[in-house]
Amino acid sequence: MIGCTYGRVFQVTVAGGSYQDGLTTHLQGVPSGLYFEEREIYSELLQRKPGQGELSSPRREPDIPIIYSGVNAANTMEGFENAYYTNGTPLVILVPNLDRHFEHIEQYRTSNRTPRPGHASYASYQKYKEWDDSIGAGFFSGRYTSTLVAAGAIAKRILKQHGIEVCSYVKEAAGIRMPDMDPETIKNKVQAFKDFRTQRDPIYNLVYGEERIRPGMRYLEKMAVLAEVEKMVPDIKQKPLTAEEAEALAYQGLHPVLNCPDLDAATAMYDRILEIRDEGDSSGGIVEVFATGVPAGLGEPVFSKLDGEMGRMMAIGTVKAVELGAGMSVKDMTGSQNNDQMSMQDGQVAFSGNNNGGITGGLTTGQDIVVRLAVKPTPTIAKPQVTVDKVDLVNANLAAVTRRDPTIVSRIWPVAEAFMAMVLLDQYMMHLAVEGLRKND
């Protein structure tokens, strides 16, 4: 299989599958001298993992990351304090699968001959024939996005050290769209949402709060902890929201499950998603992701234009359209309406708007980069569907029996955030190289 690597300087290669032993993120280009703890990566992974309420699949994957290589095992010399810091070699992160039980595998086995309409299961069988990894949809499952989020956790940390921040949230779900809101308020609310999820997460408290996994542990010691956690998975449940927690969330204008920074819109989205789910169906929506603090001039001409690179977010499963700035609505504008006119204010170039999403000619303008992703409804639904037997090539009927998400939009936003960070870090590193090689007069 090719096509599982992205980037030129910050290179990300991913591997694994939904019901294989786990998934892997292999990163090249990570600078030396950085310190990461696995709990930091986990805090990002838990935002997209399943089993966290009525808006996601009941599969309860802990998504506990293991840093496998790329950091020093100990202080390398007397007087050096560099244990567990990155050393410039490839950084490899493992995400083992712990919630893959035989009864679920058997459900896939009994339905795999009849591919789900709207899912990759028919096309992947045509490509890989009987060797297709179709248990849990293999590499075409949403499970693989955990590899992107792990890579994004590293990329976001590096970018933030250089003043660049990436933020994502649910803009629209089940036909309900939130009103516009200023980026700084959105960033603060999204961070508060992440913090809330982390503080309440039972796996985080079990594994990191109780220091079952901590810096300095050997790989096999960590695996022993994961073996114990695997036994606990069926009994680990999220505690119900307390009245105090609900009151605190409402005060901050946050929804407990849906990362939409407008509480009224989030509540309406949530209710509508569940209504559609109870009808046996699924729903889609729009995720917006934006970056602040990006300097002007990032990007490369022609085939590597930055807006084209942002279009690579189509690689995220269930994303069917990507738009920058005003996006599709530019077709209804005149030039005078669409142009982001420029003027000098306090010695800085200011723009009248951001219809171009912070990118013109494939290069950044110094404005916020704004991208929206159209997320399709989950293909797996509880309604009968017409399909075929992909082996015998005869007509067939399908009723979903596997675990499913009533919507994917509530879990795609952290993936979008990670993907944009991967793209921007790769471009930023190339940008620094050009800047560093430029001859100064």
Explain what the structure shows.
With 441 residues, the chain is α+β, with helices and mostly antiparallel strands. It has one domain: Chorismate synthase AroC (Chorismate synthase, AroC fold, 4-Layer Sandwich), CATH 3.60.150. It is 33% helix and 18% strand. A 5-stranded antiparallel sheet has the order 1-2-3-5-4, with helices on both faces. It has a 5-stranded antiparallel sheet with strand order 7-6-8-14-9. Strands 10-11 form a two-stranded antiparallel sheet. Helix 4 crosses helix 12. It is globular. The model has no long low-confidence stretch (mean pLDDT 91).
Task: Summarize this entry quickly.
The protein is an alpha+beta fold. The chain has 12 helices and 16 strands. Helix content is 33%, strand content 18%.
Helices and strands, with pairings:
Layout: E1 5-6, E2 11-16, E3 22-28, H1 38-45, E4 66-69, E5 91-96, H2 102-111, H3 121-128, H4 145-161, E6 165-173, E7 176-177, H5 183-200, H6 202-209, H7 219-232, H8 243-252, H9 263-278, E8 285-292, H10 306-310, E9 319-324, H11 335-338, E10 342-345, E11 348-351, E12 359-360, E13 363-364, E14 369-375, E15 385-389, E16 394-398, H12 409-437
